[in-house]
Design goal:
The chain is mainly beta. Helices cover 9% and strands 47% of the residues. The longest helix has 13 residues. β19 and β20 form a beta hairpin.
Length: 350
Amino acid sequence: MRRALTAVILLAAGGAASAFLVNRGDTSQAADQTAVALPVNTAKVTQQTLKDTETADGELGFGTTSTAVNRAAGTITGLPDSGQELRRGQTVYSLDNKPTTLLYGALPAYRRLASGSEGPDVLQLEQNLSAMGYTGFTVDDEYTDATAEAVENWQEDRGLDETGVVELGSVLFAPSRIRVDSVQAQEGTPIGPSQTVLTYTGTTKAVTVRLDASDQRLAKQDAKVSVTLPDGATVPGRVEKVSTVIIPAESADKDPETKIEVIVAIDNQKAVAAWSLAAVDVIFTASERKNVLTVPVSALVALREGGFGVEVTDGKSSNYQPVRTGLFAGGQVEISGAGIKAGTVVGIPK
């Protein structure tokens, strides 16, 4: 007598799973059992690309907002308009009729620069002077007399006192062109150090998504995503920046929340030009398996001896074949094993 084969059948529905035992008897009963035991519901093994995707709510705008903070006491004498775009060399705002000029760089201005200064902020300043057409100095991290002379020429062109010194607060460094988001200060009013003058963003459209901490696996730097716009059109995007933010509690009886903030860059700016602000859906792909064999998750059975299997049938008889599982996604599961190929018919337990 052949030893009976026992399998635990997995049923998956709505994310929940249950199991029951199925016993296949000895060979003396095989003929009778075959007619009864053949699976009623079946599916074919298919070869496809399997993606584990998640959709999250996003906001189309201009990405991260930064703050321009005043560095000296004085009176506001000039301000830009909300929505105005500024580029290198232009005035962001004026204090006591002296401009704060936009320059490009990742390092914020934090000190007065003059002959004898050294450091990456000096290099950043000299790179800007060179980009604006000033010459006669070496672009490095040393503020020399030649640098000071170039600064004097720049100050003359700006209508400023030719001191050769870059005072703290006279420049605002930003990564590239900026768009004024909102203006907090008012012309003609006094302002002190560390007070907010305005907020600004970049000039290209981007999508901001805040994910739960449990979905951090989705936030992979440079990962490709798909963005669905309000009109149903989709555009490709790319994860440009990932950071952790703390959302303060709304009331004393609630705890602060930790969120993963994702900035999605949109390369095709024309596709989103019609939307200044919009609620969008962002589809993240956590993992992807190309050209793999898959079956519905509900086709899997847990074998008593361990691991998983599927019930393979040709319409006349059936048998359980052990399989190795891979990616689970969209109700499908990646499988591989002896005798398993595209088109193989497997049973779906009731």
